[in-house]
Design brief:
The chain is α/β, with parallel strands linked by helices. Helices cover 39% and strands 21% of the residues. The chain has helices at residues 2-13, 38-51, 70-77, 83-92, 125-131, 162-173, 182-195, and strands at residues 35-36, 59-65, 93-99, 106-108, 111-113, 115-118, 121-124, 142-146, 152-157. The relative contact order is 0.15.
Length: 196
């Protein structure tokens, strides 16, 4: 516990090796993950909805973060730099980084979302809609998985180390979530790794 607090403090107060501004409407690549914008992904979703058919079956993964979140910085500095995580994200997902406190208008899957002020801070409605679990609010980091039609599939709250993230990306990216629970998938995956 003390180690986690120290690591969080170091990540929070240490300068980032590389900072990137994530702006709605721009496609941004950092490290080797091909980060894209909500606007660019929305174009694909809008086509799918209009045709009522999925042309591109890549899922959407949204990383909801804030600039003050130490665990978000750890996710960026450790997990998102892992080569296997990078490969899986680029293979299976349109990856979006979304500042949950940004004050911009966002259109996604036919719905317009705005910033919702609350005291000195606030939360974007897109983060609340796509990053909240039933009966709960949103914490940071939160990763949401969304299907090609713009429907939320799952919300994963909290930091994931590279090994945890790899399993999560395979589970959603390869569609295992459609046929089995994560716990069952994890057991099967470990069995397959041992037999290889």
């Amino acid at each position: 516990m003390i180690t986690e607090i120290i690591i969080s403090a170091l990540l929070l107060f240490s300068p980032a090796k590389k900072q990137t501004n994530f702006v709605v409407g721009e496609t941004v690549a950092t490290d080797s993950i091909h980060w894209t914008s909500v606007a660019d992904v929305d174009k694909s979703i809008s086509k799918n909805i209009k045709k009522d058919k999925v042309k591109d079956d890549k899922m959407i993964m949204v990383d909801f973060y804030t600039d003050w979140c130490g665990w978000c910085k750890k996710l960026d500095n450790i997990t998102y730099r892992d080569p296997e995580v990078i490969d899986l994200m680029n293979k299976y997902f349109y990856a979006i980084k979304f500042d949950a406190e940004q004050n911009t208008v966002v259109d996604f899957a036919g719905i317009t979302y705005n910033f919702k002020a609350n005291g000195n801070r606030g939360t974007h409605e897109f983060a609340l809609a796509m990053g909240s679990r039933p009966g709960a609010g949103i914490g940071y980091p939160t990763i949401s998985f969304i299907d090609p039609m713009g429907k939320k599939v799952a919300v994963e709250a909290g930091y994931k180390d590279p090994a945890q993230m790899k399993l999560t990306l395979i589970y959603y990216g390869e569609g295992h979530y459609k046929t089995q629970t994560f716990a069952a998938f994890q057991v099967d995956y470990k069995k397959n790794q041992l037999s290889d």
